[in-house]
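User: For a teaching handout, I'd like to show students what a predicted protein-ligand complex looks like in token form. I'll give you the sequence and the SMILES for NAP. Please answer with just the structure.
Assistant: Understood, here is the input followed by the structure.
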Amino acid sequence: MFEYEAPADLLKDRIILITGAGSGIGRATALAYAQSGATVILLGREVKKLEAVYDEIESAGYPEPAITPVDLESAGEPQYQELVNGINNEFGRLDGLLNNAGYMGPLMPYQTITLDQWQKILQTNLSASFALSKFCFPLLQAAENASVIFSTSTAGRKAFAYSSAYTVAKHGVEALVQVLFLELENTSNIRVNSVNPGPCATALRRAAYPAEDPATLPQPEQLVPVYLYLMGDDSLKENGKQFSAQE
Ligand SMILES: NC(=O)c1ccc[n+]([C@@H]2O[C@H](COP(=O)([O-])OP(=O)(O)OC[C@H]3O[C@@H](n4cnc5c(N)ncnc54)[C@H](OP(=O)(O)O)[C@@H]3O)[C@@H](O)[C@H]2O)c1
């Protein structure tokens, strides 16, 4: 596992947008960011899941979070602009963006995947991460230092059979990180890095590997240290790099 012990106030007064915050790795990371002092903006599709995370954060006495339900599969420019306007009106900046929402679907040969399934996987994992990074740029620029993290996958770093759309999407996310790094490295306060969480007991993993015993996998909470490290000031020099939560 990636080893990092965060100071108690690592993210004090930071404003951080987290996608896929209602479950799995996004939920665990949102709770850890809030515990470290951040005001977290929880983005996901299912309001009930976001509300449950909101309640957990509030009852723990961490800074009051915000909820922003968005369906990343269907969102277009007006929805992204509305989201950014809302954050701008309330907070005026973003210190961090964790592009973490993802959808994998079941494993299947490329001959049987429908174009709709292909589009859904590309849209949710790749195009939405691009769109959020693009639309949030002015908010990130307004921060003193901003960190953008992308949850990728082992499938973003090598090819997997029966996972064509997900492999292509996550390779695309790794490529996007490199492009943003090249465009931003000498001109801005924004650093970009990717994290491969590795296999982890979440709904996404269960849907792809239904026969696997989740008890054999790490829990989302165990993967949080690398996400804390990359969001806080101890990682100010990390830019354009690939990290792994389980190495
Ligand atoms: N678990 C693993 O083994 C593993 C391994 C490698 C990489 N990853 C990556 O880790 C990230 C987090 O996944 P997870 O494992 O934590 O799975 P998860 O618990 O299923 O979480 C996925 C999250 O993405 C959100 N999401 C999916 N489609 C969405 C949409 N159309 N609009 C808005 N939000 C959407 C879901 O929100 P709703 O529930 O509200 O729809 C959910 O909170 C993903 O990028 C995944 O590819 C996971």
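For the handout, you might add this sentence: Helices lie at 24-35, 47-60, 77-90, 115-135, 137-141, 164-184, 203-208, 224-231.
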